[in-house]
Amino acid sequence: MSHDAPHHAAQHPPRPAPRPAPRPAPRPAAGLRAAVARRPLTAFFALAYGLSWLAWIPYLLSSHGTGVLPFSFPAVLGTSQLLGVLPGAYLGPVTAALVVTALVEGRSGLRAWRGRLLRFRVGWRWYLGVGVVVPVSVLAATFVLPQAWDAVRPVSALLLLGYLPMLAVQVVTTALAEEPGWRDFALPRLQERLGAVRGTVLLGLLWGAWHWPLFLTEWGGWPHVSWVQPTLFTLSCVPLSLVMTWVFNRTGQSVPLVMLLHAGINSTYTLLWPAVFPALDGDHDTLVVQLFATGLATAVLLVLTRGRLGAPAARAAAPPAPAPQLSR
Question: Rounded to two decimals, what is the model's pTM?
Answer without folding.
Answer: 0.84
